[in-house]
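Re-run requested by the PI after the first attempt was lost when the workstation crashed. Everything re-entered from the original request form. Ligand of interest: flavin-adenine dinucleotide.
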Amino acid sequence: MTISGINFKTKAAVNETTFYLGDSAGMIAPVTGNGMSMALRSASVFASMADQYFSNALTKQQLIDNYARFWTKEFSGRVNLSRHFQKLSEYPFLTKMCIGLFKPFPSLANAMIKQTHGSTF
Ligand SMILES: Cc1cc2nc3c(=O)[nH]c(=O)nc-3n(C[C@H](O)[C@H](O)[C@H](O)COP(=O)(O)OP(=O)(O)OC[C@H]3O[C@@H](n4cnc5c(N)ncnc54)[C@H](O)[C@@H]3O)c2cc1C
């Protein structure tokens, strides 16, 4: 079973008035996996940055820049990669081809999972 037809285009994780955490950033394709971890990680990092902002250790612009930089470094690579893999699930022929490839070569599947799941924190 797949989730498809949803727009997972890359959007900014922050703008002038809003910081997007977890799924609200709207970029996490289901195949990425670890959505709960990404939500907790972004909330934890943002909480610490917000604390610095409210203690006047950061300006608003620094808060925006720091959070955008964190999101890009931490998530953008694997989110972008998984977006392409997610596309495959929209075409039964490609889905079957990938499953056919991964079955005899599980290390290939593991490598892909590693790329999209990120590391533990
Ligand atoms: C079917 C399915 C299976 C999944 N399986 C996994 C899995 O195995 N492992 C994994 O890591 N991730 C999984 N995920 C992804 C994971 O659930 C999400 O990535 C994660 O929950 C995102 O957390 P979040 O806090 O950003 O958003 P959410 O968990 O969606 O929390 C947002 C909350 O805000 C509330 N809300 C919305 N609008 C308003 C409003 N206007 N006012 C007040 N409250 C509001 C909602 O009711 C909700 O409680 C799965 C997702 C789905 C749909």
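Saved to the shared folder this time. The longest helix spans residues 60-88.
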